[in-house]
Write a structure and sequence with these properties.
It is a single chain. By secondary structure, this protein is mainly α. The protein has a single domain, classed as Vanadium-containing Chloroperoxidase, domain 2, CATH 1.10.606. Helix content is 52%, strand content 3%. It is built from 14 helices and three strands. A three-stranded antiparallel sheet has the order 1-3-2. β2 and β3 form a beta hairpin. α2 runs parallel beside α4, α2 runs antiparallel to α9 and α8 crosses α13. The longest helix has 29 residues.
Length: 412
């Protein structure tokens, strides 16, 4: 059974964390550095940087161990090269390229990591492999559609169509270009586009409308404290830190090798990024309104079973892009699918905490418990309908399945 504990902030230092696990493994160590370095980015953008970094680490390690099919297939390294040095050099070079303002901290971390590895030819060979993998991944992802930024302004105020919400810049809905992002593993961003959202006059719409209206408002009397906690936690905690922490903790728990760990982190982050690109294609294809807009306009949606609340405000801030389907739901569904296929669905021990949400510590024994909380978090946070979450999860599971089946397969 899942346990959810509210602890004093002073107790958080006692928790098992990715950083605590990483001291003896450079793949884990630099995964934690990656999460920290990219943490100031929009969660969607962060996922792209995470995928590039972890693919570079995988490619460098795999060029030496050769346990799995390569991603690029262009990196060569002697079997005598240090996989530890390769992992450090690959992650460092990617992060320094994209985050030059962090160069000093990254250089210091690189020096500390490499100091643990004996000097000599093995170390030099590993560094060379890591730097080559980083350079190749950076070059591959140039002009991948992630920039320049594009925005979307609503063309009408018809019922069901997305409208600007308070978090939006004047230019309109953000990350419109992400629908055309070149995927890492899937074929196209519309490959797993969701089926349409339910009609505004359908019983399903009515049911989910009333659910979010009852439990998702800032002043709701029907939101239990536990659901308020997960809503705040997952509003502040993006998919990349959630699922990299879960993957790292379970990999260590199961005693996986460095090569297996590098592959797991690469697949998880590829799946998250490809799921997010897919969901943005779906979002802007259907352009469906947010609960915040829908509930305020409930008397004008053509459905006699909805009722407007012109003062409705969600418990957490609504992101500035269409509602259907859920981005957190899709990326988490993708990560869950990959991790269940690699590590099994249950009997794990995962602890998640975030200093930005003091006093909330989440403990899980199964990956599905994480996605269940994330689904609740978005509904109880007032920013998604339940059908948004379910459609996002379906996208994610399809993307995760495809990524695991077709990418970085074990060599026979």
């Amino acid at each position: 059974m899942r346990m959810r504990t509210r602890l004093a902030a002073a107790a958080c230092g006692m928790l098992l964390s990715t950083a605590a696990l990483s001291t003896s493994d450079p793949v884990l160590e630099w995964n934690a550095i990656m999460v920290d370095t990219t943490s100031g980015q929009n969660p969607i953008v962060q996922a792209r940087f995470a995928a590039i970094t972890q693919l570079a680490v995988f490619e460098a390690v795999n060029a030496i161990d050769k346990d799995f099919d390569p991603y690029l297939g262009t990196i060569t390294a002697a079997h005598t090269a240090s996989v530890e040095a390769a992992a450090v050099a690959a992650a460092h070079a990617v992060l320094k390229n994209y985050f030059p303002a962090n160069a000093a901290a990254l250089e210091a971390a690189r020096a500390t990591s490499l100091a643990r590895i004996a000097d000599g030819n093995r170390k030099r060979q590993g560094i060379a492999a890591g730097e080559a993998a980083a350079a190749a991944m950076i070059a591959l992802r140039a002009d991948d559609g992630s920039s320049p930024p594009e925005f979307h302004l609503p063309a009408s105020t018809n019922p069901g169509e997305w409208q600007l919400t308070p978090s939006c810049p004047p230019a309109g809905g953000v990350l419109l270009q992400w629908r055309n992002l070149r995927p890492f593993a899937i074929e196209t961003t519309h490959q797993f586009r969701s089926a349409p959202p339910p009609a505004l006059t359908s019983p399903r719409y009515v049911r989910d409308y009333w659910e979010v209206k009852m439990v998702g408002g800032v002043d709701s009397r029907f939101r239990p404290q536990g659901r308020a906690d997960v809503a705040r936690f997952y509003a502040a905690t993006a998919p990349v830190p959630v699922w990299n922490a879960a993957a790292s903790q379970v990999a260590v728990e199961q005693g996986r090798s460095m090569s297996e760990l590098a592959r797991a982190l690469a697949l998880v982050n590829v799946a998250i990024s490809d799921a997010q690109a897919t969901v943005f294609e779906t979002k802007y294809h259907y352009n469906f309104w947010r609960p915040e807009t829908a509930i305020r306009a409930g008397n004008a949606d053509g459905n006699p079973f909805t009722r407007a609340d012109p003062d409705f405000k969600p418990f957490v801030l609504t992101p500035c892009f269409p509602s259907y389907a859920s981005g957190h739901g899709s990326s988490s569904g993708a990560a869950r699918e990959v991790l269940e296929r690699m590590f099994g669905a249950r009997h794990h021990f995962v602890i998640l905490s975030n200093p930005a949400v003091p006093g909330v510590v989440l403990q899980y024994e199964a990956f599905r418990q994480i996605t269940h909380d994330i689904d609740d978090a978005r509904v109880y946070g007032g920013i998604h309908f339940r059908f948004d979450q379910e459609a996002g999860a379906q996208i994610g599971r399809k993307v995760g399945t495809y990524v695991h089946r077709h990418t970085l397969r074990r060599r026979r």
